[in-house]
Amino acid sequence: MKKADLNNQIFRDYLKHENNIESSDEVRLQRKNSTIEALTKYETLEVAEVDSQYFGWIPNLWLERGMTSQAYGLLVLIVVHGATVPYYQSQVAMIDNLAIRRLLGLSNANRKSKIGSLLRELEASEIITVHDNFIELNREKTANYQGTGFTKVYASTVKKILEHMQGMRVLNVLASYLALRSTIFENYDGGNLPVTMGSLQRWASSKASLSPRVHSDNLRWLRENGILAWIEAIMNNEKHNSCYYYGELWDAECVVSEVLSDLNGRILRLAS
Predict the structure, then answer these.
(1) Which DSSP category does 237 fall into?
(2) Read out DSSP for 86-109?
């Protein structure tokens, strides 16, 4: 990732602002160092190009079906295993109950019925059709969702989550990943950076049937385990509350750019 431009006017204005704050030199230096550290923490990050090339997609209309959070998490797991099969003229996922349990590291026989129950929940919502050795996704081509849109979830990010966690809780974390991704619109050419703010997450949590508290805990887990690129900002308001900016690891540069552009306006300073 290229270095953040710390010589631009926005950053110089920030330093001037910090220097004028009535506070001890030690406190001012600490705040400036925290901001610089946050802006430069991804400069040595190296991400494989392939990580951004494989993704599954979920029509946004499916986020209005009101399913359980674990069903939404299982849906994420299914769509990243989807592959186009011309015979079906739709997408199918080469995955079944046993493969799902293996991915989640579930060995208890009683989890077979739990996964089966979640699959039936997805079927009842007319999202999937379960076959013997694969799962069919009941959706049309992406072009048919121009009005309502769709949400992309990346296979490499799902893989990282599975590498750090096993068990049924994975499904809730995947549901949080889906909720966060639903607030990101990727349009590099149109000037829309693939970045989302934490202030949107209370609203987003309900999309995947998560409580704001559980969603917040899951996002903290994603941050602590380095699954996503993130920067914590101290907001320029009366409360000076913190807010997180998120993006995929390969979009860390975009996260930094967005944060830097908001510095002195929406953002007062950064936390490291």
Answers:
(1) S
(2) TTTTEEEE---HHHHHHHTT---T
Q: Which amino acid is residue 189, in one-letter code?
A: D
How far is residue 54 from each of residues 50, 125, 272, measured CA to CA in Å? 7, 26, 31
DSSP SS3 for 77:
helix
- Alpha-helical (H) ranges within the chain are 9-20, 25-40, 69-79, 97-103, 110-124, 155-164, 169-181, 201-205, 212-224, 252-262
Q: What is the pLDDT of residues 152-191, one digit of tens each?
A: 999 999 999 999 999 999 999 999 999 999 999 887 666 6
pLDDT in tens, 50-70: 999 999 999 999 999 999 999
Cβ-based neighbour number of residue 200 at 10 Å = 16
Q: How far apart are CA 100 and CA 151, in angstroms?
A: 22
Decide if 215 contacts 246 (C-beta within 8 A).
Answer: no
- Contact of 171 with 165, CB cutoff 8 Å: no
Quick one: CA torsion of 44, 221, 75, 250, rounded to 10 degrees? Answer: -10
Q: Global pTM?
A: 0.92
Q: Is the distance from CB of 212 to CB of 200 less than 8 angstroms? A: no
